[in-house]
Amino acid sequence: MDLNTSIDSHLEKIQIKFELEKIKGTDLLNITSFRQLNLFLLKNIYDKWESNFETNKIKYFNYDSNDLIKATDTMMNILSNNISIEINDFNDLFSTSSKQILSLANNPKTFIKQDLLISEWYDEDKIKKKAKYYHYHKKLFHILVDKIQSNNEVSVKASELVNYIDNITLERNEDFIEEACSFFKLKKEKLLSPNSQIEDDYYTFFDLNKNEVDNLINEALNKKTFEDTISLIISSFHENYKNDISNKKIRDFFHSIKEKKYLSSK
Known about the structure:
The chain has helices spanning about 5-15, 25-30, 35-55, 65-80, 85-105, 110-115, 125-130, 140-150, 160-165, 175-185, 190, 210-220, 225-235, 240, 250-265, and strands spanning about 25, 85, 120-125, 155. With about 270 residues, the protein is mainly alpha-helical. The strands form two sheets. The protein has a two-stranded antiparallel ribbon with strand order 1-2. The chain has a two-stranded antiparallel sheet with strand order 3-4.
């Protein structure tokens, strides 16, 4: 069985259960037997709300005031208690979250760094909130909180957190991989397909070390348009590759970036 077939199979069961009613927030907590997938469903809803909020900020308000920050948190809590999703809208959410499971299983460090870069700043509370969406990787977020505390920092830029993660060893979690394989009915070698990762060959395109390339790509994926994403990536290519972007390996690389950007925007 491939991933898309497995997703369709799970969706069919969910559609039967919720055929005549909307899916609520309380339903999402236990909508599948796979806790990490359920958490990603909630995380993606929250990320969409936060992205929409950031996009629609206007210049007449002080969004850094404590009153407004508290009011925003209160609003988010109210919204989380009033989640209501039509089954047709749920399908895309489920598919995106399922594919993110594979990305996290394949390369947890890269996935989490990219997720952190969604926001610009983090304090301890915000890191702890992010940790709630990661069933198997909470230890990493505890390390980040300890790092902030040891540095006596009130808040840090997301880019700084990413730099901290570069110095932390984070291996694939075998229990997580085993549960993902069982839930999606995929063999381990299929779940950990090299096609779901950026090939090591691609690192040779850049005049940067491996961690710097990972961070650059994560930053590029958060640009508003695909053109801006590619422009930032090309700016760090070796000179000889800048003049050879029609090369098939480079075109394949750009295609993989386009797919990642599409999934992250859904």
